[in-house]
Amino acid sequence: MRKIVLLLFLFLNIGVVSAHAEATQYKGMVTGDQTFLKDEKGSTIGTISKGTEVIIEVYNDTLVKLVHPESDLFIDAVAIEIVEETITPENVATIGQVKTNSMYKLYQEPSPESLIVFTGGVEYIFQVGNIVNGYYEIQFGGTNVYLSVENAKALFEDTYAFDIIGNDLPIYEWKNGELVHKGTLAKNTAWKIERDIAKYHIIRIGSKEYYVPIIGTFPSNKKPSVSVPKSAKYPLSLVTERLTPVFTKDGRALGTLNKGSLLHIKGIDGRQAIINFYGKDARIFFNHLVHTNAIQPKQAFSHPETGFYLQVFAAMYPEFTELKTIGKSVEGRDIYALKLGKGKKEILMDGSLHAREHMTTNVILEMLDTYSANYLKNSIYEGYSPRSLLNNVSIWFIPMLNPDGVTLVQSGANGVKNGELSTKINKGSTNFQAWKANVRGVDLNDNFDSNWDKINSTVKSPSPSGYRGPRVFSEPESRALRDFVLSRDFKGYYSYHSSGQIIYWFNFQKDGQATRDITIARNVSSLTGYRVVPPMFVVGSGASTDWFIKQTKMPGLVIEISPYVGNKPVPLANWDSVWKLNRKVGLYLAREANSR
User: Fold this and answer.
1) 0.90 cut: is pTM over it?
2) Which of 153, 431, 551, 585 is the most exposed place for a label (fewest CB within 10 A)?
3) Architecture of the domain defined by 324-339+393-594
4) 324-339+393-594 has the same fold as 161-220
5) Is the dihedral of CA 559, 565, 566, 569 positive or negative?
6) The sheet that has 262-264: what strands, in order across it?
7) Strand 490-499 and strand 345-350: pairing?
8) Is the CATH code 2.30.30 the one for domain 161-220?
């Protein structure tokens, strides 16, 4: 039987205690079936189990006194049987105090399966020597007994932070007059206290306050860092699809977020999203997240931002997306392609082959955003079922084929490595708004091979537009698209450009191929209102779609999205109209490919 040490002193009569500076000590055993422990007023605070070994001092036949660290406690002397003399209790260091619930139990070991040595019936304050497996180790008369953390509340005085002990604890936000459960904070984590209210600690993050139950926490000697959420470099809000674990960068648990929690994503770390979790830098897996309207399209998208969104979609939806880097630009920027769908048949859509035409990137990204959201929900969008359709035909999106050129237009010569060269090509001007070429002055849409050697052009050297390059496929950007096309079996290629609201489709197709392709062009015209350009019978071309048509015998369209605005980017004021006209185009083209 485990020895339970109780420091007991003789109580000469109720309410009158004889002081003994040095008293003889005895070890005794509780023999009563129901032995009460009383306070100095004679009120019962609980019962000590029969067979519990105790230590007493100055024993007689009336009462014995337990010198408890917080107050005097007493037990009937007749319930004690002397075992031996001269027992010296151990001095145990304490780390704090707890106040019990009105009903609680003290155990021989830190387990509910252990022997119950004391049953409490009123609230009481105990000193705590340690915390073991979700139990307070109590200094109770010289030896250790154990109290579940769920049955006591730590006492906080001028404490900077708290540790979560035992089980994970819920965290709440006060909304509309009630506490709304947000998730959990993990055990063995420390959090800064703003203040306490009733039964709760308050955590403040920025202007928001969150509530954590005090029971299950303990004063911490740590000073946890708290970071106020900062604006993300690229704004993105996502929603948890299920109960979502939250952890530190090195994988330690921080807590959980409930299903349906709206999160502001701060960054990406491989397959993990970086978030601010109640003042802590944290990670969650992207595949626990979904989106409804992730991209805000009425803006100019840089190359890094475009790459960020593509990586996010690929990380969120690995089951129906695939992200590739198909090549690099002159300055080493990645050229991304993302597949949406599970279909074995595939079509290709791209944008920003010409630098100043970067609103076409917006069209591609908004298609990805809108189509994937409806795929996820298995909903009908504009008369199409994206899930059903994209399970048969996948769309490969290349949002930005000319990342160096786009960066030059958006950020100027200081935004690229070859800014001095570009400025020289631009005849000394630092205004690059009219620039179409890649960063070294080759017009990528004149660098593909559809009788490239027969191109009739007056531009014979690097230029903001119109220079075909020193040789066919001289540029890494055009080679990247060429090699990607040749590696797959696309049923069609559709390249977005920006000015004129017209559609090009012809490159000397004949018979059934010509009938098929003009039909597709006319149907896209019906969706958009754009005019189909009649055949022009240009013998020499370096256009990407002309090369594709010649190489694969599949349809290829150039779709110009905006009324002509001159030699400059399409203004954002045109965006709403552009998207309204093009929102169904990708789904139509996928459906058309599925028919072949």
Assistant:
1) no
2) 431
3) 3-Layer(aba) Sandwich (3.40)
4) no
5) negative
6) 262-264, 237-240, 289-290
7) parallel
8) yes
